[in-house]
Specification:
The chain is of the alpha/beta class. It contains nine helices and five strands. It starts with 19 loop residues before the first strand and ends with a helix.
Length: 236
């Protein structure tokens, strides 16, 4: 990956054309964190950004279980609709129907969702696959275990290759992963000043100095959640 000139947070904000960015990959590879960080950077650069959350996560939280075989297609359709109905501007999607198709293939030996998922995937200007260099972390119902990451990664790449859809693989720890994603998109990375502004804004949210918005949080330890949980224990 080549080097790019580093720009200020707002440089070039009026010259960028809105694009759709898909973030896909195996579980516990930083899809949500990267989606949130990219959205924050683009907003700081003056862009209108619509972040599309993972429908599967919302579904599991609501139902208290993982979906069954016959429910996979509905989740894939809902994920696609959330992107296709997004307002104008940059759209950054935390996963796509392709991931539902891959898990349907892996868990249920059902490959019927691939045509719909790949037709939707072709709508994106960029597809970023998360590398497997981050440690696996448990996340309740959402994750099966580290043993599925390799097979899922392979199926994602095979599906994209077969459909002729280009992609870039993003590696790196912490801020390096964000900068590598920006470079993969052909955008300038963050300089130290811009990074400090963004991280201070997140710190202000965590300290309660600004309105809490979980969809803009990139803190993996989620201080807000930990703090509110502590208060709940004290009140009992």
């Amino acid at each position: 990956m080549g080097l790019a000139r580093v720009a200020s947070p707002t440089e070039g904000s009026t010259s960028l054309n809105a694009q759709r960015i898909a973030i896909v990959g195996a579980e516990s590879t930083g899809k949500s964190c990267l989606s949130q960080a990219l959205s924050a950077v683009m907003r700081m650069r003056g862009q209108t950004v619509h972040s599309v959350d993972e429908v599967l996560r919302e579904w599991c939280d609501r139902e208290g279980r993982t979906p069954q075989h016959h429910e996979q297609a509905g989740i894939a359709q809902a994920q696609a609709q959330a992107v296709e109905q997004a307002p104008s501007g940059w759209v950054i999607s935390d996963t796509t129907p392709l991931m539902t198709a891959v898990y349907s293939h892996l868990l249920f030996e059902d490959e019927r969702l691939y045509p719909m998922a790949l037709a939707h995937q072709a709508l994106y200007d960029h597809t970023l696959i998360m590398g497997l260099d981050l440690p696996w972390v448990a996340d309740g119902l959402q994750r099966d275990g580290p043993h599925v990451r390799g097979p899922v990664d392979t199926l994602v790449r095979q599906a994209l290759d077969k459909a002729g859809i280009s992609y870039r693989v993003v590696y790196g720890q912490g801020h390096q992963r964000l900068n590598n994603a920006l470079l993969a998109l052909g955008l300038p990375g963050e300089d130290s000043a811009a990074r400090m502004v963004r991280e201070n804004a997140q710190f202000a949210i965590n300290q309660g100095r600004t309105v809490w918005q979980c969809n803009e949080c990139s803190d993996p330890e989620c201080e807000h959640k930990l703090f509110t949980g502590l208060l709940a224990k004290r009140s009992t």
